[in-house]
Write a structure and sequence with these properties.
Layout lengths: L1 E18 L5 E20 L3 E6 L13 H13 L5 E6 L10 H16 L6 H11 L3 H6 L3 E5 L3 E4 L7 E6 L6 H7 L17 H9 L6 H7 L2 H10 L4 E6 L6 E5 L2 H14 L4 E6 L3
Helix pairs in contact: 1-2, 2-3
Bound molecules: 4-diphosphocytidyl-2-C-methyl-D-erythritol and adenosine-5'-triphosphate.
The site of 4-diphosphocytidyl-2-C-methyl-D-erythritol has 19 residues, from strand 1, strand 2 and helix 5.
């Protein structure tokens, strides 16, 4: 059996720069991953099967709509062999939450089955397959700090990244990515500043000061409580930035120390027991 964690994707900033003829939006985003996520395991079996457990298991189906099964079928088709596997998914991340949980699951499934089945696809081929499953799958295949552009197919890895801690807060409201993009008013809002080197936490925070998430306003129209989550996070001692991730509704806070992030997480969780709250390091 081989296992992996499909970690939560966080868009530290997200600028929408245009729209393609097919309706997909062009983006620029600094993407990182938090050290928490869904657990996936695969082992050889005659048939292909998926078992889902965990706190958010109900949000995803066992049908071909599940991105884990979609990824497995795609790998079967591309390899031309009807290979089997027993796949287990422990769904720890909220669904349709802006954390790319489904995309991270698909990415890890592609990598795990490529190893289990010895199909030998290159990283580029897996990224191409991933893009056909979802715009966030290629970045999730990388799993560390990346500058993403296009609709998610152009990726530039950030060679070094400082220690930072992230607080994730989900208010329990799901928003549809397609609906958030549909509500976005396309207009020039200013380019993302060039990325030089992120040697210190201050470098990252200075860069982020001149950035934004363009999907925050349309997501807030759909889920006004996002504003409350942002102000609660921003009020925590040591929080250097609070913002929404992806198409929402999960919001995050950035901290320089692990203890301040953990104290903020337990304070928020005790005030809002129904919210999903996690504090963890940013993957480097
Ligand atoms: C918002 C982000 O999470 C930022 O990382 C991604 O751009 C979304 O990635 P994703 O959830 O994998 O998105 P997909 O499943 O490919 O697309 C869902 C829907 O969102 C819209 N969509 C998505 C990505 C994009 N660049 N432009 C779009 O307009 C499209 O209507 C699409 O039908
Ligand atoms: N394994 C899976 N985990 C989560 N969602 C899945 C999965 N398979 C299919 N889905 C479907 O995909 C949709 C998007 O789920 P996901 O959790 O990836 O969204 P998201 O976090 O908003 O993504 P993004 O950050 O890319 O906008 C949901 O509507 C869900 O039903």
């Amino acid at each position: 059996m081989i296992t992996a964690t499909a970690r939560a994707k966080v868009n530290l900033c997200l600028h929408v720069t245009g729209k393609r003829a097919d309706g997909y939006h062009l983006l620029e985003s600094l993407v990182v991953f938090a050290e928490c996520g869904d657990d996936i395991s695969v082992e050889c079996d005659k048939e292909l099967s998926l078992e889902i457990s965990g706190p958010f298991a109900d949000g995803t189906g066992l049908t071909d709509d599940n991105l884990v099964l979609k990824a497995a079928h795609l790998l079967q088709t591309e390899s031309g062999a009807n290979l089997g596997a027993k796949i287990r998914l422990v769904k720890n991340l909220p669904v349709a939450a802006g954390l790319g949980g489904g995309s991270a699951d698909a990415a890890e499934t592609l990598k795990l089955l490529n190893r289990l089945w010895k199909t030998g696809f290159s990283a580029q081929k897996l990224a191409d397959m991933g893009l056909s499953l979802g715009a966030d799958v290629p970045v999730c295949l990388v799993g560390r700090p990346v500058l993403m552009s296009g609709i998610g197919e152009h990726l530039r890895e950030i060679p070094a990244f400082p220690k930072l801690y992230i607080l994730l807060v989900n208010i329990g409201v799901t928003v549809s990515t397609a609906e958030v993009f549909r509500r976005l008013e396309l207009r020039a809002r200013g380019d993302m500043p060039p990325v030089d080197r992120f040697m210190t936490a201050e470098d990252v925070l200075d860069f982020l000061e001149n950035t934004r998430n363009d999907l925050e306003a349309p997501a807030r129209d759909l889920a006004p409580d996002i504003a409350m989550a942002l102000s609660v996070i921003g009020a925590q001692d040591g929080c250097r930035l609070s913002r929404m991730s992806g198409s929402g509704a999960t919001c995050f806070g950035l901290f320089e120390t692990e203890d301040k992030a953990a104290i903020a997480a337990s304070a928020i969780q005790s005030h809002y027991p129904d919210w999903w709250v996690r504090a963890c390091p940013v993957s480097r």
